[in-house]
Structure to design on (800 residues):
């Protein structure tokens, strides 16, 4: 191994094997590459047959793609996970307290910890939610927290939160299917390692959803709301509904009468108490939000505000996962819990602050500059790979609208051995654990590991050539 | 269960059954057309599948004359023909996809891989293996998905609605097949040997040849064929058996609005169970079967209204082959 500028999950700075990978490395050395290639082909075949695919917009209806699955797992030792889990709990607890506060007394603004306009002028702030009480004060029932491990080859590879996803985070079905696939392909590995199970995620999710039902409902009817079979994440919606044993509904299957939500069934209308919705805020109710939405239910907001139905996640969680709010999360942890963050944020410059702006403009070629409301890589500049021209152009835009931009140092994401065409080689990865909140906060050990399959690439998104891996949290 | 889910289960099963029936019908036609016969009669043979499926108009919009290869292409691979085997297997899969969470994973995977195989089916294989092999494959896949349905699905509403779809489609198909073939075979008077083959092919097309032998251990006569396919309650594709199944599944999903539908299905099932052949032939077989097909269509409509509730904005996957 040469002196790499990134943290390698398997190898230490001197090229030695980290202890939690020793057993695996042994297995890998004794397993012929063509066996791994065969297993990989088998995985593709099974994923196709079982339809574990994502739909691609703009292509012929029924065209579905596989997200590339890498058969080499990402391994996390028990103590690393214990720290991560504590940090995730702390963070999600805080974000829910923040949402409760923002839509009620706004103590954090009164205390001067976050500027009022940062919240009130945020497009994701929903005035409709002001003063609305939600069961248990929980807004983000399901949170997907994107975590990366940064630092150079000799560092200890600290974890950082890159992004909070509190709206409709997806990917958990791949976490579960990847595990099933690994157990099918390489059962022998699971006798060498004590890998913490993740299969009970749907049970945990159902328990959480039932725990936040409207008051007075003893046996709540839970449903999963999907935009429909052509949505890119439809597989996951159907999968979760099936695993929880609840109905998978579309907006057209439901109606509101007397501020109560019903679904149309073969035996007449049936009351719905909790919706795990996988439809964005804007499309939930054409009477309240986008009028052209065919995906929602007219009158849903009124039933929701009346406390007759619970939405998970709540409406308006976007104000807490926005890129312009992200830098304040450590502040929130201090304000609400009086604690120090267990997992840190990535250093972030807010261009709306004069001194930050000055620094950003002077160092654009080193930074990643992002639009606060942008997603999926739009409105973004990656300084080190951009041309002089692109940087100059972007500088003018940032100067004109500084409040719309943030900047972060370019992170060297950690890398994990991955099976690629040339054999086994390191590729950069991230991790999305799924944190569930109800009467308490729980999660299954692990999450979805995404991997950038192109050499040197830091982009793990499946729409841009990213793949996934099984994530093994080792039992202590 | 959700009305929309019930609708998808129902159509998933109907399309699967329809693909199988089309394969059976075409398969028998292939064999019939291989018998020595005058050219005009051979052509007439190839009109039959078009008339049975009510697709003659569609076909003639596209082609001037009845040519066996074109009829086959039209009925098997034509993606624009909503009742081609291709479209039916796609329809079955799309309906299953929309409710995959309600189905067992075994059933979903069966329908999905059937469709993936159909989509990727190489025409060379069609030529090499002969079309007979292809029809065998369609029948086998249909048997498989029905078997998986019975073996893995809970005996709850999704199962009942799938079964309703299967038996309504099958009842409709057996009636049409018998009607058209009966006309065709009884009107002309070919020699006895040819007659035997014609009737035995008809029996084979509904997997009833061996059943006939067992039931009658005697010569094949048109009236007995009719009796077997209409009134025999032990024969899985007979009208009697189909309607008994339709009725019992309707009882299982009964709701506040479905009383009249259930009554009509029960009445029809009883008439078949206690009916006799003389009455049917007094009325005229063609009249009887026409009336039967209408009553099946009436039941389909009533089931849609009672349970499946047409929801605005919802379009069921490919439109069903228009009846009549």
């Amino acid at each position: 191994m040469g002196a790499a500028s990134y943290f390698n999950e398997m190898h230490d700075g001197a090229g030695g094997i980290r202890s939690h990978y020793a057993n695996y490395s042994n297995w890998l050395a004794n397993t012929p590459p063509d066996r791994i290639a065969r297993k990989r082909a088998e995985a593709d075949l099974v994923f196709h047959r079982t339809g574990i695919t994502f739909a691609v917009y703009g292509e012929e209806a029924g065209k579905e793609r596989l997200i590339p699955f890498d058969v080499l797992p990402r391994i996390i030792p028990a103590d690393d996970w214990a720290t991560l889990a504590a940090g995730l709990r702390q963070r999600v607890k805080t974000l829910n307290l923040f949402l409760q506060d923002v839509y009620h007394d706004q103590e954090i603004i009164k205390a001067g910890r976050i500027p009022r306009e940062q919240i009130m002028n945020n497009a994701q702030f929903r005035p409709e939610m002001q003063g609305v009480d939600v069961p248990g004060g929980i807004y983000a029932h399901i949170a997907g927290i994107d975590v990366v491990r940064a630092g150079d080859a000799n560092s200890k590879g600290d974890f950082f939160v890159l992004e909070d996803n509190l709206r409709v985070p997806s990917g958990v079905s791949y976490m579960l299917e990847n595990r099933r696939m690994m157990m099918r392909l390489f059962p022998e590995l699971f006798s060498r390692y004590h890998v913490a199970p993740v299969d009970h995620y749907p049970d945990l999710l159902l328990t959480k959803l039932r725990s936040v039902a409207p008051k007075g409902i003893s046996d709540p009817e839970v449903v999963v709301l999907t935009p429909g079979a052509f949505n890119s994440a439809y597989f996951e919606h159907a999968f979760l509904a099936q695993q929880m044993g609840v109905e998978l509904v579309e907006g057209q299957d439901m109606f509101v009468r007397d501020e109560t939500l019903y679904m149309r069934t073969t035996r007449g209308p049936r009351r719905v108490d909790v919706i795990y919705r996988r439809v964005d805020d804007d499309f939930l109710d054409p009477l309240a939000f986008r009028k052209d939405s065919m995906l929602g239910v007219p009158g849903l907001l009124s039933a929701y505000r009346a406390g007759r139905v619970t939405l998970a996640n709540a409406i308006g969680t976007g104000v807490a996962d926005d890129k312009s709010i992200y830098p304040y999360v450590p502040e929130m942890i201090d304000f609400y819990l009086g604690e120090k963050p267990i997992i840190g944020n990535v250093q972030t410059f807010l261009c709306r602050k004069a001194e930050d702006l000055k620094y950003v403009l002077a160092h654009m070629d080193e930074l990643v500059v992002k639009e606060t409301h942008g997603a999926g890589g739009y409105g973004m500049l990656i300084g080190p790979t951009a041309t002089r021209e692109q940087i100059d152009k972007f500088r003018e835009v940032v100067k004109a609208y500084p409040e719309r931009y943030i900047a972060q140092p370019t992170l060297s994401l950690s890398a994990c051995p991955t099976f690629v065409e040339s054999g086994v080689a390191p590729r950069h990865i991230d991790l999305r654990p799924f944190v569930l909140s109800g009467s308490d906060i729980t999660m299954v050990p692990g999450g979805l590991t995404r991997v950038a399959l192109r050499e040197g690439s830091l982009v793990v998104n499946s729409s841009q050539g990213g793949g996934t891996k099984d994530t093994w949290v080792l039992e202590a | 269960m959700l009305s929309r889910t019930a609708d998808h289960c129902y159509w998933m099963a109907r399309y699967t059954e329809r693909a199988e029936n089309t394969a059976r019908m075409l398969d028998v036609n292939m064999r019939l057309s291989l018998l020595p016969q005058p050219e005009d009669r051979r052509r007439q043979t190839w009109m039959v599948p078009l008339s049975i499926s009510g697709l003659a108009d569609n076909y003639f919009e596209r082609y001037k004359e009845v040519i066996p290869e074109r009829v086959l292409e039209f009925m098997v691979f034509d993606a624009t023909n909503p009742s081609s085997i291709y479209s039916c297997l796609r329809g079955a899969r799309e309906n299953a996809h929309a409710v995959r969470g309600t189905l067992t994973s075994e059933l979903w995977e069966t329908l999905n891989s059937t469709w993936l195989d159909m989509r990727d089916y190489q025409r060379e294989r069609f030529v090499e293996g002969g079309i007979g092999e292809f029809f065998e494959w369609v029948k086998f896949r249909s048997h498989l998905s029905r078997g998986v349905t019975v073996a893995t699905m809970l005996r709850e509403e999704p199962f009942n609605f799938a079964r309703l779809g299967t038996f309504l489609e099958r009842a409709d198909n057996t009636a049409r097949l018998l009607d058209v073939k009966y006309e065709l075979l009884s009107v002309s008077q070919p020699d006895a040997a040819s007659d035997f083959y014609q009737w035995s092919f008809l029996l084979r097309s509904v997997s009833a040849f061996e059943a006939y032998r067992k039931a009658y251990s005697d010569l094949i006569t048109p009236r007995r064929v009719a009796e077997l396919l209409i009134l025999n309650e032990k024969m899985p594709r007979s009208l009697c058996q189909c309607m008994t199944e339709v009725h019992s599944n309707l009882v299982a999903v009964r709701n506040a609005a479905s009383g009249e539908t259930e009554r009509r299905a029960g009445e029809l099932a009883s008439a078949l169970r206690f009916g006799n052949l003389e009455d049917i032939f007094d009325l005229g077989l063609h009249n009887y079967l026409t009336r039967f097909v209408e009553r099946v269509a009436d039941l389909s409509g009533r089931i849609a209204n009672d349970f499946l509730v047409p929801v605005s904005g919802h379009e069921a996957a490919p439109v069903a082959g228009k009846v009549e």
Notes: Chain A is about 30% helix and 25% strand.
